[in-house]
Every structure is written in structure tokens, then in C-alpha cells.
């Protein structure tokens, strides 16, 4: 048995902070590595020691095995914890740690290698008697899909199929194919994304189960051959094959199914002599039949859900097993107590198709009432960059029942405010308050069938945006009034002979809001939005960042932040981001007709066309990558490419012109 005195955490953000919380409680000195983009990140300040990795891109920093091993040697670390993502499921990294005389906090490299390749993992699971779905290996360079391959997939697997990367996870390198004609484009996109994210473009096609649930089992193994399960987590609420809400226990798993799932997961662990914390993922169909998806040989993002219902600290157990200790007796006695639900708060623009959002957090507050746990790696002032995952925080509620946990989490997220970047907060609240979620009637396709924007709109007051527009205008005038040096004591917009009110126009979500207001010495006299008057309005307190106002006897408090050309207003009604329309617009430099702009900041990974190329509507033009997600900019109509303004490897800002496609007039 070898004890760990100093631990290097080869990761960043919230998971680095989470690991340190337990390691420090075990009197282990904590070392982190950090990129230039993370120079001032909270996890760096939490560490006992930190080593800089020059650069910002993951390939220069958190994916550099040599630099991380060098950092461990420099600091005399005993062990390396990989967290999740980056090198956590990289067998070469695990082996390099062992070869350098370091303890790798995870399973042996051979296990990571076997289970990291989803194709070999399926073979191993089938041999162990674990149910698997029909699938076929495709390789790493088969685009466009030749007719024999399409016929083979149709015969051996059957459509619809899910094309998946053989390595990695997180929903990257995955494409759903419902018809044979779609297979070629799906293969190309999946292979490209897999190569970019995991360094290997090998993919396979697996039968797609409609309206399925994603249920996973937490397992633990030690070096003495013991493997146990700690129950299930239901991770069925997803977008783009990435989890949004996870819970334990699953609302669809009864005692007999739980026993069958647990037995299959333990069999999977024993088949590969599993050591450490791992997760066996299954897809469960509507007839309660389940099939192996993959095994994650690491700590899962959603591990707090299991910790709250079992009372166990999975990071502590990881470290104890890594030291060579047997699993403690408390693991055998663990039971699922109460219900826990986790929501992932992301910096992303839901209305724009979940595009990642970047910027500086000027406001960030998540309440922590009894029963709520918040795991985060950001704070006010943190910059959300395009280099890394856009996860801001995991908010987890634990209560005696599912209904209570759901209510507690919804309220906590409703009271959360984030200013500076767009988030999915309102979508999470809408999902948790929806009848479908509350009755457990959701599946992995739920957000593909239901428009996320409509879900948010249906859950908020129809008056929210109008009231937020009024508040934004009132706060803006308060800021201007506070800065004036002439007639500072006079009401805003004062005139000897009152006539027209003051006007401000905003846009939000494609709609315009013209706000009219007039102040007198007695307060707000007139308040309209789009010519519609409010009722009795009393402004109790107004400042540039907070407005306390009562409308028709109902008093509310609003938070306001302005910056980057936008104004964000949040309250119990929800949140709205406005862009003010200039009163006197300056002449703009207009782009050429047919210009295709970057929908988000990111890196160009592929330019699919050149000047003079003819393209059809929907044809790929440029592929961008940001926060581990790839986005294809396509031709909006048939035409000819007249200019290409970017090249592979180039970093672009949102709104940058990527290419110009001339569309002949009808």
C-alpha cells in the first residue's frame, strides 16, 4: 500500500475544485496545472501549488501528457487525478503516469484501453453476457459511404442508426441517421469531429432505439477483486447527445430492473478486472429491455447525484482505492436514500440552437439553501472562453422525494442569476416545472421533439419581456441621471412645458420593445411599452444595477447588467437580454450580399469550398469548432462561391464573414 501525500490534478474548472475539496480534507497537498486562459481561474487560487502550461488551446495544455508528467516531477507529486474529459480516458496517459512512477487515480491502462475503444468494449461485454445492440465497425476514412457499406449497415444493423466515435464521449462524434441517403454526410461529420476531439476518426454504426431512456450504473472496484454497484442514475434529458439533467433513483427503474441492471454492470466490471470508480451506461427501451452503451473509466460529471443519495464521497473512495486500500464496509451498506436531481448550467444560447456563449461573468450567484449543493469553477470576473467546455456549474438538489427535489432545484435555478453571458437557466427551470418531467415522461429524444424556445416561453409570464424592457429603460436613465452635472436635482427628461415622454427602443428575441416613460418630482408618471400602458406603477428604488418597482400592487426586484452592447434584466419572471436600438444610427460598412457569418467565436477546422465553386442549398461551406462542439455553416441557397475569407486553423469572432455565396436572382 502506497499513500498519497501530494496529488496533481490534470484538469481544470469545477472538477479540479471538486477533487481538491476532498483531497484537502484527507490532508493531501493539491497541485494543479493551468493554461494561460485559466491564469486567474478560481481553481488555480484554491490549489496549494500550480504549474503553468504555456498556451490556451487544449492541444497545447491539458492534452499534453509530457507537460503534465513534467509538472508532477517538478512538484514531487505522488499521484495524478485526471478528473473527467481531456486525458481521463487516455490509456497512453495512464501508462505514462505508471511508467513515471506515479499513481494514476483510475483503472489500469489496459482497462482504459479496452473500454475506451467502444468497439472492443462491446465485444468484451457480449462475451460477459451483457446485452449489446447490433452494430458494425466502419473505420476512420470511408466517406462518402460506398453503396456496399450502406447496404451492409442496412442489413446488419437496420435504420435508424447512430454513428458514433469509437473513442471519447460527451456526445461528440455522434450523428443520427434515419435514411440511407444521409449516411455519407453523417460519416464524414462524425469522423471529422472524432478526429478533432479524440485524435482518432474510427466510428461505428449502432442501432438507434427510439424514445429510449439513458440509465447508468455507478460501480466501484478495488485491487482485491471486489466490484460493487451503487445504484443507477437516469440521464435521459439531453441535448445533442449531451446530458442536461440527471437524477437518482430513476423514475422508470423498479426493484427487479435495478437488480438486473446492477448485476449486468458488476459483470461488466468483473470481466475487465475493474479498479476504481466507473460507470456502465445502458439504453433502456419502452419494454424495460436494456443494452450496453459504454463504460466510462473515470469519475462522471454527474457523480454528485450518487453521492447525495448514498452519503458516500466517490472522490475519497477513488483516492483510497488508488492507495491500494480495500473498499470500506460502508460501500456494502450503502442504500439509495431520498432523491437527488442535478442540472447542468451552461453558457450557451438556447434560442440559437444551443450555441456556446463566451464572455466575462459580471454577475454570478447560485443560492445554496438546505438540500442544495453547487459545484462550480467560476466566479464573478471569470472569463468563459471558446477553448473549453461551457459548463458554469452543476446545481444538485436532494430531498426525501422526487417531487420535493424537483421543486427545490427549480426554485434554486429560478433564483440564480448570471450576467455577462447567455445561459440555459430558463430552459432548465422550464423542464423541471413541466408536467412531462414531473411525471417522468421524458426520454433522450425529448428536446429533439420539443422546441426549447417554446418550452421556455410557455413557462414564463407573458408580461416578463415588457416589464423587463421598462425596467431596463428606467435603470439606464438612472445611470445617466447619476452622471449628469447640469440640473442634477431636476427629474429625468425635465421640461418647462411637458410634452412627449422619453423614448428608448430595444430588441430581444427578434421582437422590438419601444419604451416610453416620463418622470416628475413625484416619480414615474408615464410608462408604456409598444404604446400599451402599464397600470399603477410605483418606483420604490432605482439604480443602474437594481430596480425595485411595484406594478398594480405587486412589488418585484430586478437585477440589471449592461455591457458589450446589451442589457440583461433578471427577476422572478425570468431573464431577458436586450440590445438598444441607436436613436441615430451611424452609417455601417455593409457586407457583400450573400455573406455567411460566423454564428459564434471559434476556430475554423475545415473550409469545404473555394472561390468559383458551385454549391447547392445545405452544402457545407465552413466548419467551426468552439467548446468541443463543431458547427457547420451551410449554403442557404444554390449559388456560386465568390470569396472565402478564412482558412483552417484560423480563430474568428462571432459575426466574422467566412465566405460569400452569390445566389442568382429568381
Secondary-structure topology with pairs:
Blueprint: E1 6-9, H1 13-25, E2 29-35, H2 42-46, E3 49-53, H3 65-75, E4 79-81, H4 91-99, E5 103-104, H5 109-116, H6 118-127, E6 135-139, H7 147-156, E7 161-165, E8 174-177, H8 183-198, E9 203-207, E10 213-221, E11 227-239, E12 242-248, H9 255-271, E13 276-284, E14 290-296, H10 303-310, H11 314-322, H12 329-333, E15 339-346, E16 348-349, E17 355-356, E18 359-360, E19 363-365, E20 372-376, E21 383-384, E22 391-399, H13 402-414, E23 417-419, H14 425-433, H15 435-438, H16 446-449, H17 452-459, H18 464-483, E24 502-508, E25 511-520, E26 523-529, E27 532-533, E28 537-542, E29 546-551, E30 554-563, E31 566-571, E32 574-580, E33 595-597, E34 602-607, E35 614-615, E36 620-626, E37 629-634, E38 639-644, E39 651-652, E40 657-662
Parallel strand pairs: 1-2, 1-4, 2-3, 4-5
Antiparallel strand pairs: 6-9, 7-8, 7-9, 10-11, 10-13, 11-12, 12-15, 13-14, 15-22, 16-17, 18-21, 19-23, 20-22, 24-25, 24-32, 25-26, 26-27, 28-29, 29-30, 30-31, 31-32, 33-40, 34-36, 34-39, 35-38, 36-37, 38-40
Helix pairs in contact: 4-5, 13-14, 14-17
Structural overview:
By secondary structure, the protein is an alpha+beta fold. 27% of the residues lie in helices and 33% in strands. It is built from 18 helices and 40 strands. Strands 27-26-25-24-32-31-30-29-28 form a 9-stranded antiparallel beta sheet, with helices on one face. Strands 14-13-10-11-12-15-22-20 form an 8-stranded antiparallel beta sheet, with helices on both faces. Strands 3-2-1-4-5 form a 5-stranded parallel beta sheet. A hairpin with an 8-residue loop joins strand 7 (161-165) and strand 8. Helix 4 (91-99) packs antiparallel against helix 5 and helix 14 (425-433) packs across helix 17. The radius of gyration is 27 Å and the shape is globular. The model has no long low-confidence stretch (mean pLDDT 90).
Amino acid at each position: 500500500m502506497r499513500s498519497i501525500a501530494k496529488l496533481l490534478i490534470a484538469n481544470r474548472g469545477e472538477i479540479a475544485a471538486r477533487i481538491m475539496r476532498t483531497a484537502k480534507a484527507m490532508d493531501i497537498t493539491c497541485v494543479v496545472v493551468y493554461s494561460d486562459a485559466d491564469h486567474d481561474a478560481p481553481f488555480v487560487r484554491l490549489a496549494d501549488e500550480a504549474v503553468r502550461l504555456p498556451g490556451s488551446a487544449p492541444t497545447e495544455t491539458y492534452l499534453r501528457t509530457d507537460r503534465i508528467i513534467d509538472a508532477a516531477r517538478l512538484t514531487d507529486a505522488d499521484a495524478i487525478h485526471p478528473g473527467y474529459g481531456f486525458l481521463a480516458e487516455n490509456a497512453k496517459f495512464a501508462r505514462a503516469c505508471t511508467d513515471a512512477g506515479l499513481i494514476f487515480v483510475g483503472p489500469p491502462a489496459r482497462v482504459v484501453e479496452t473500454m475506451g475503444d467502444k468497439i472492443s468494449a462491446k465485444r468484451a461485454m457480449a462475451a460477459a453476457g451483457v446485452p449489446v445492440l447490433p452494430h458494425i465497425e466502419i473505420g476512420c476514412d470511408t466517406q462518402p459511404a460506398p453503396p456496399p457499406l450502406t447496404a451492409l449497415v442496412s442489413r446488419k444493423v437496420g435504420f435508424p442508426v447512430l454513428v458514433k466515435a469509437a473513442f471519447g464521449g460527451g456526445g461528440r462524434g455522434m450523428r443520427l441517421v434515419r435514411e440511407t441517403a444521409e449516411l455519407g454526410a453523417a460519416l464524414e461529420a462524425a469522423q471529422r469531429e472524432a478526429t478533432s476531439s479524440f485524435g482518432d476518426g474510427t466510428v461505428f454504426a449502432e442501432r438507434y432505439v427510439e424514445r429510449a431512456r439513458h440509465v447508468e450504473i455507478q460501480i466501484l472496484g478495488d485491487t482485491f477483486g471486489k466490484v460493487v454497484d451503487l445504484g443507477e442514475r437516469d440521464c435521459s434529458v439531453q441535448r445533442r447527445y449531451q446530458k442536461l439533467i440527471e437524477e437518482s433513483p430513476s423514475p422508470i427503474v423498479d426493484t427487479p430492473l435495478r437488480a438486473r441492471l446492477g448485476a449486468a454492470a458488476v459483470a461488466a466490471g468483473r470481466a475487465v478486472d475493474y479498479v476504481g470508480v466507473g460507470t456502465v451506461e445502458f439504453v433502456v427501451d419502452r419494454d424495460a429491455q436494456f443494452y450496453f452503451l459504454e463504460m466510462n473509466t473515470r469519475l462522471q460529471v454527474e457523480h454528485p447525484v450518487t453521492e447525495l443519495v448514498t452519503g458516500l464521497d466517490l472522490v475519497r473512495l477513488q483516492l483510497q482505492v488508488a492507495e491500494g486500500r480495500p473498499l470500506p464496509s460502508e460501500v456494502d451498506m450503502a442504500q439509495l436514500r431520498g432523491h437527488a436531481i442535478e442540472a447542468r448550467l451552461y453558457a450557451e444560447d438556447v434560442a440559437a440552437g444551443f450555441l456556446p456563449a463566451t464572455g466575462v461573468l459580471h454577475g454570478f450567484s447560485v443560492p445554496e439553501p438546505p438540500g442544495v449543493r453547487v459545484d462550480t469553477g467560476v466566479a464573478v470576473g471569470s472569463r468563459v472562453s471558446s477553448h473549453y467546455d461551457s459548463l458554469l456549474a452543476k446545481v444538485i438538489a436532494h430531498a426525501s422525494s422526487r417531487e420535493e427535489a424537483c421543486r427545490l432545484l427549480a426554485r434554486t435555478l429560478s433564483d440564480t442569476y448570471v450576467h455577462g453571458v447567455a445561459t440555459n437557466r430558463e430552459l432548465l427551470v422550464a423542464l423541471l416545472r413541466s408536467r412531462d418531467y414531473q411525471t417522468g415522461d421524458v426520454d433522450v429524444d425529448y428536446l429533439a421533439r420539443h422546441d426549447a424556445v417554446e418550452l421556455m416561453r410557455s413557462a414564463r409570464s407573458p408580461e416578463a419581456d415588457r416589464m423587463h424592457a421598462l425596467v431596463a429603460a428606467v435603470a439606464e436613465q438612472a445611470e445617466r441621471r447619476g452622471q449628469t452635472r447640469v440640473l442634477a436635482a431636476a427629474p429625468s427628461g425635465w421640461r418647462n412645458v411637458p410634452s412627449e415622454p422619453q423614448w428608448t427602443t430595444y430588441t430581444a428575441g427578434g421582437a422590438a420593445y419601444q419604451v416610453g416613460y416620463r418622470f416628475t418630482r413625484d416619480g414615474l408618471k408615464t410608462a408604456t411599452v409598444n404604446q400599451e400602458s402599464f397600470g399603477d406603477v410605483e418606483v420604490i428604488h432605482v439604480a443602474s444595477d437594481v430596480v425595485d418597482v411595484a406594478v398594480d400592487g405587486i412589488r418585484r426586484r430586478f437585477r440589471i447588467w449592461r455591457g458589450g452592447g446589451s442589457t440583461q434584466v433578471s427577476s422572478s419572471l425570468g431573464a431577458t437580454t436586450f440590445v438598444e436600438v441607436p436613436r441615430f444610427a451611424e452609417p455601417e460598412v455593409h457586407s457583400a450580399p450573400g455573406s455567411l457569418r460566423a454564428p459564434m467565436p471559434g476556430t475554423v477546422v475545415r473550409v469545404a469550398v473555394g472561390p468559383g465553386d458551385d454549391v447547392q442549398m445545405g452544402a457545407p461551406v465552413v466548419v467551426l469548432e468552439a467548446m468541443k462542439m463543431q458547427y457547420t455553416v451551410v449554403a442557404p441557397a444554390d449559388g456560386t462561391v465568390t470569396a472565402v475569407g478564412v482558412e483552417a486553423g484560423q480563430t474568428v469572432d462571432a459575426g466574422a464573414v467566412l465566405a460569400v455565396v452569390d445566389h442568382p436572382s429568381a
